[in-house]
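User: Hey, my collaborator sent me this sequence without any context and asked if I could get a structure. I don't really work with proteins. Can you help?
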Amino acid sequence: MSYKTGEIPLNQQELVDEYFMEYRAMLLAVAAYLDRMDRSEMNAEDDFRVKAFRASLQELTSDETGRVERIQMLLSDNDTTLMDERDVQGAYGAFNPESRTPATEEVS
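Assistant: No problem. I've predicted the 3D structure and written it out in structure-token form, which is a compact way to encode the shape of the chain:
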């Protein structure tokens, strides 16, 4: 049997039967992280990673297809500056607008 591009070989019931427990565990892990954040001292609400994480959670509830791409972009650093010219070498998991200039802006 051949499949069209973008077609999933499993139907929804098969997907639920196969993967529900795995994704249930991931959702519980996210909920536990959010509960720990709620119980901790509030001092990171303006952190770019927290903002990107919360925006990603909003995308999860969207009814539009393409959630993966939109969330990937929220959790990606779009800075194309060469690594040896950057201020840091480590990854942060999201774009920090205060530390670098995004590739879409003109650098003067």
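In plain terms: Helices lie at 12-39, 48-60, 67-74. You can pass these tokens on to your collaborator as they are.
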